[in-house]
Specification:
alpha/beta; single chain; seven-stranded parallel sheet; Rossmann fold; binds NADP nicotinamide-adenine-dinucleotide phosphate; 252 residues
Length: 252
């Protein structure tokens, strides 16, 4: 592929926001985009059929499959300059977020913790060797404002809140190690705001229409927020940053 100089990874690519990010990233002719998902929705795969700069990689998020994907990308020798880890679950067919403590279940907590904190943690573990290169690289990990310990006023949603708080601490800790081992990498913990997706569907009736964002809007905001961090003149303070869709810092 002529003109291709770098690559980007979008992990958890069945997410509505992830798909909007992929559309936007593909506008840049210099980028190859690797999209990673357990299973790609048929409408997305069909729409992407002729995209030569997009590779769809199925993955069960086991350490062995993560490692195989990292090795595959390494063989291309394209520096990876952007990574988006979008995985996150709030509810599924069998459970909703807890309104009161009696609804807390160890099994559900472990499931939510695995998807929201362990899976992103495994990616950060595997990515460190791929991302160490001379170009600036930005890693965005999707969290949520409700994962902020100091901002917790409403309570409820025990498993989701606790898993996102654990994720935030994991990323903050990883940023300290990345600062030593892969200084070119900047880690961002991102709150997209309430966005129209499967995740927010059961709660959308409580949200004013102007406060329910389209995935395309969130993707555009995020890419414009991280653009300066990808510039070669940017100097990182090597701390993770927790920001929302407006670029406003959220307290940990
Ligand atoms: N939408 C909102 O209002 C909102 C608000 C605050 C924060 N967020 C956060 O933003 C991120 C993207 O959310 P979205 O709204 O785009 O959600 P979505 O469309 O429901 O996407 C769900 C995401 O979770 C992953 N996932 C689901 N079950 C999984 C499992 N068993 N194992 C591993 N991964 C699994 C999916 O990955 P696969 O591609 O592998 O299926 C996909 O990336 C999430 O981290 C979410 O917590 C969303």
């Amino acid at each position: 592929m002529t003109g291709v100089k770098r690559c980007a990874l979008v992990i958890g690519a069945s997410s509505a926001i992830a798909q909007a990010l992929i559309d936007n990233l593909l506008l840049n002719d210099e980028l190859v985009v690797y999209a990673i998902s357990r299973r790609f929705p048929a409408d997305f795969s069909d729409r992407m059929l002729n995209q030569k700069r997009l590779q769809l990689l199925e993955c069960d998020y086991s350490p062995a499959q993560l490692s195989a994907i990292i090795e595959k990308i390494k063989t291309t020798s394209l520096p990876c300059v952007k990574v988006f880890i979008c995985n996150g679950i709030l509810h599924n067919r069998t459970f909703l977020p807890e309104k009161k403590i009696e609804q807390f279940s160890a099994d559900i907590f472990q499931q939510v913790m695995h998807i929201n904190a362990v899976v992103p943690g495994l990616w950060l573990q595997q990515l460190i060797t791929l991302l160490k290169h001379p170009l600036p690289c930005v890693v965005v990990v999707f969290s949520a404002r409700v994962g902020s310990i100091s901002d917790n006023r409403a309570g409820g949603w025990y498993s989701y809140r606790a898993s996102k708080a654990a994720l935030n601490m994991f990323v903050k800790t990883a940023a300290i190690e990345y600062a030593r081992r892969a200084k070119n990498v900047r880690l961002i913990v991102f709150h997209p705001g309430t966005t129209d997706s499967k995740l927010s569907q059961p709660f959308q009736s409580n949200v004013a229409p102007e406060k329910l964002f389209k995935p395309e809007f969130v993707a555009t905001q995020l890419l414009s927020l991280i653009k300066p961090l990808g510039s070669e003149s940017y100097v990182s303070d090597h701390q993770a940053t927790f920001i929302d869709w407006q670029g406003k810092e959220i307290e940990w």
